[in-house]
Design goal:
The chain has eight helices and ten strands. By secondary structure, it is α/β, with parallel strands linked by helices. The strands form two sheets. Strands 6-7-8-3-9-10 form a six-stranded mixed β-sheet, with helices on both faces. A four-stranded antiparallel β-sheet has the order 2-1-4-5, with helices on one face.
Length: 231
């Protein structure tokens, strides 16, 4: 299990959003930090095949990002995921499962299991338009997990979650990282400090730090802020 990003760049006219990034990721949780405009979302969207790189390559176990087999192992929660307000929670997950090619009996069981995992079982038959922001975010997390992805990409997944929900979600991500590659982009340093096997930091489209974080050694937030002041 390996995601290889090789000399990846994305340029918009005269702005370089991602600048020659190379990373190799194996099983585990990777926490991506960076200020607004650092290039994090552009990087994630290229990894998910939504944006085409200007140059460079992305592959998972030899499968190119453009291949159907790559998409089959991918789960993605964008920063603003689209939902249908008139759908109920369960109907939305069944609809998304159909789009992912999951058969009806398996989809129903998986959707019910995921609603339980994200604590939405009691609201499964309520319309999404009645959900709070946190509930919508939890539903988004559930849809990202429908196909048991081996590569899970999460862009600001704890936005809108209260502290108790954030802890529950962190525990879930930590468990998922035992059997898959999880790339988690957030501005909440504590989310990464608690669960990330590797910490990544981006600034001005470049990866300025990558490494395993030892919380006993230093405070990640202080290190993060200091590093950005230096660069």
């Amino acid at each position: 299990m390996e995601l290889i990003i090789d000399r990846l760049s994305k340029q918009y006219k005269n702005k370089i959003a991602v600048d020659r990034i190379s990373i190799s990721m194996q099983k585990g949780v990777y926490g991506l930090l960076g200020a607004n405009g650092a290039g994090k979302t552009t990087l994630l969207r290229m990894i998910c095949g939504i944006l085409k790189p200007t140059s460079g390559t992305i592959s998972y176990d030899g499968m190119d990002v453009s291949e159907e087999s790559y998409r089959a192992v991918l789960g993605y929660l964008p920063q603003d995921f689209g939902y249908y307000p008139e759908f109920t929670g369960i109907d939305f997950l069944l609809y998304m499962a159909a789009l992912k090619g999951i058969g009806k009996p398996a989809a129903k069981k998986r959707a019910e299991d995921l609603l339980q995992i994200v604590s939405l079982t009691d609201s499964a038959k309520k319309k999404i338009k009645t959900y709070s922001g946190g509930m919508k975010q939890r539903l988004g997390i559930a849809q990202a997990l429908l196909n048991n992805p081996k590569l899970l990409v999460l862009d600001e997944p704890t936005a809108g979650l209260d502290p108790k929900e954030r802890v529950r979600f962190r525990d879930l991500i930590e468990k998922l990282g035992e059997d898959s590659i999880v790339l988690l982009s957030t501005h909440i340093v504590s989310d990464i400090e608690h669960i990330a096997d590797q910490v990544l930091m981006m600034k001005n489209g470049q990866m300025i730090y990558q490494g395993k974080w030892d919380s006993a050694q230093d405070d990640l937030e202080e290190f993060y802020l200091h590093r950005f002041e230096e660069e």
